[in-house]
Amino acid sequence: MNEEHTDRVVISGAxxxxxxxxKKFLSKNGIPTISISRQNFKNNxxxxxxxTSHFIHLAGIGSESVDQDSFVKVNxxxxxxxxxxxxxxxxxxxxxxSGLGVSKNSRSSYFISKxxxxxxxxxxxxxxxxxxxxxxxxxxxxxxxxxxxxxLKKHVIIPGSGxxxxxxxxxxxxxxxxxxxxxxxxxxxxxxxxVGPREITFQKLITKSIHSxxxxxxxxxxxxxxxALTDINFEYxxxxxxxxxxxxxxxxxxxxxxxxxxxxxxxxxxx
Length: 271
Ligand SMILES: NC(=O)c1ccc[n+]([C@@H]2O[C@H](COP(=O)([O-])OP(=O)(O)OC[C@H]3O[C@@H](n4cnc5c(N)ncnc54)[C@H](OP(=O)(O)O)[C@@H]3O)[C@@H](O)[C@H]2O)c1
Description:
Layout: E1 8-12, H1 17-28, E2 33-36, H2 38-43, E3 52-57, H3 71-88, E4 93-97, H4 109-122, E5 127-133, E6 136-137, H5 142-152, E7 155-159, E8 165-166, E9 169-170, H6 171-183, E10 190-194, E11 200-201, H7 202-209, E12 215-219, H8 221-230, H9 238-245, H10 252-258
Parallel strand pairs: 1-2, 1-3, 3-4, 4-5, 5-10, 6-9, 7-12
Antiparallel strand pairs: 8-11
The protein binds NADP nicotinamide-adenine-dinucleotide phosphate (NAP).
């Protein structure tokens, strides 16, 4: 029998895009949650985590700047804290959100920090699921917010050829996947690409999502990287470009085989 009993679920990064949506979804499905905030980590003071079956570790950053914490401090060090919290409170399962394309061959600081966090989790002795998401799409997601802001300025930039592939997944499907993981051991000690059924180029996704009269500018990739490196207001950060140019796609079939529901095919942003 594969079914497991779920007590309370604790979520770090609960105020972020995934966290907010997941909390709402789990509450609708009668699964109580506890949120761990940035303040909890900062003060090293946490709410009671008794009778908790799973820790969903979402807190993380995807870009660095001089006035922000570093990838190592957030993506790696907070993961150590979370593992210790699980052990101290007898929480046996941890779900971690890494990133699609993360591997032992990663060379970018963001990907390396996610890889190192994955390694800590794998070696923790806890039952783990490492999700590697592509772009997660919903109301207010990171990519949609970025493109909507550009649309308002009537000028959308596509870096390079725009021909790199993405494999977006809807936030609703992400929440349903988590529920499958909470209610069974199907995902235990696995690394799973959190990717939708459709591969689409960045160019196609953007052009399809623009309805009004907006100028689309293809920007030479060298110039785009130069701006990303030096201009804090540029639409794309270095890691955004790395992820795009990386052309990362994943194994949807494996995910589909583990989850018995139909995934949404994403070809539009909610701009
Ligand atoms: N969304 C995607 O498309 C996507 C794709 C691949 C991977 N991921 C990964 O999935 C996870 C969730 O993504 P998301 O879109 O929900 O991200 P998000 O909206 O940026 O939320 C990130 C969360 O991390 C928290 N956080 C940031 N810095 C922190 C710090 N120094 N100390 C403690 N908490 C901190 C934030 O807290 P505050 O609310 O206090 O700011 C926020 O709740 C992240 O780890 C991300 O890297 C997401």
